[in-house]
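job 3f2a | input accepted
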Amino acid sequence: MSGERLRRLPWDGPEGKPAMVPDGNPDGPLSRLADFIEAQQVDAADTVLGLALGVLDSGKLGSDELAYVARRLAECLTDVLRVAKSRGERLPSNPLPLDGPLTGSLRQRVGDALRYTAE
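job 3f2a | predicted structure (119 res):
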């Protein structure tokens, strides 16, 4: 298994560490299960966000209700970030450094792209 790419699964393994599976069979049963769970997590986050925005806009929340909404949003954000990391790690090549600031010509190109899309 040396050199084989691994896929991060949308759940934690023992001791809270990321659960991983070899990424060589994207149609395997574990990969299909992971795809299904990721889709469910993203859908749940979308639903919770919509509900939270509606409740927050009402302005009728006490501290217990706010804490409940914050906990649910944090759970969904945790799940969606795990999905994003997993998918990002499986991209064939990633032109952007994900672990540091943008510098030099890369910073310029990203800035140009952002300005272009805003027009």
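job 3f2a | The chain has a mean pLDDT of 82.
job 3f2a | closed
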